[in-house]
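Q: Study each token:
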Amino acid sequence: MTLFPTTRRYSMAALLATASVAFSIVAASPAFAACQSRGNLDARYCDDNGDLVADTPTDASKWIDPDTLIFSYTPVEDPSVYENVFTEFMDYLAKKTGKKVRWYGAESYAAQVEAMRSGRLHVAGISTGPTVFGVNLAGYVPVAMMGKADGSFGYRLALITHKSSDIKKVTDIKGRKIAHVTPSSNSGNQAPRALFKSMGVVPDKDYKVIYSGKHDNSIMGVANKDYDAAPIADVVMERMHDKGVVNKDELRIIWQSRLFPTTSYGFAHNLTPDLQRQITHAFLSFDWTGTALKKEFGKKSDRFISISFKDNWLDIRTIQETNGVQYTDAALKGLKLKKKKKKKK
């Protein structure tokens, strides 16, 4: 698999500059003024069919058909590791589309969203909470998610602490140092803010929130006793345990939520309709048997399944609405938190 090093060197300034120029061009067009409905979508997109995602442009001159598709997976953990996990799928995607496919190792949720809306990212797996930002700010169209043959899918928000901690229930985290992931993270911030409040605990008021940047940082921080507790995605903890990065037996789950949808997979709204269909087919027809994807995610999933953003992300959108989330450039800055240096033992 050939790396695409220039992708990793994209600067935020370049991404925003490109996006700004693109917006100016679209805003000046007659098609822009003709949009009848867009809901929460950014002003450069339309949703006239009511599915809550950006419509494919009606003007064929605005479609893009790149020779090389850039693919990115959510930066939950080490991007370089996940490039190897997705190599076989990327090869399959190349076969099904007739395109070259190259990897973009995004370092933050914001980097993914900004890369897609600037036209530098075409196909992506975006984490649960940031999916809504991708849809509304970048014209991202989610079409698939990891799941099982029976259609089952999902993960749970787990509030964890060290097994030696005296924290036994949610209200015990009052006055403690609690790690959240990033402002846009569903299980790492948005869901805890909405759900903990109903249990008598208000983040930032009843306890100090410290953003760790990634789920694995929060988990390792609790394992190393840098944080008293942390709300995280249980699937990330399971994967870290399986890899020997952390021993989950040293941690205790205080409380768990109902199931949430996992990382979504999709593409930029302005790809040609034929290319959109080919990409969708590649996800839904890819055989996981004997692949690195099966080895990495096989405990919870064994295939990609079809999804509806309007239906499957209803709870996520409700949580974000409850928290007063606004899908703006200012809010997007909250996704740019850098990975914190780990303390030496």
The first strand starts at residue 68 and ends at 73. DSSP finds 15 helices and eleven strands in the chain. The domain at 155-260 is CATH 3.40.190.10 (D-Maltodextrin-Binding Protein; domain 2).
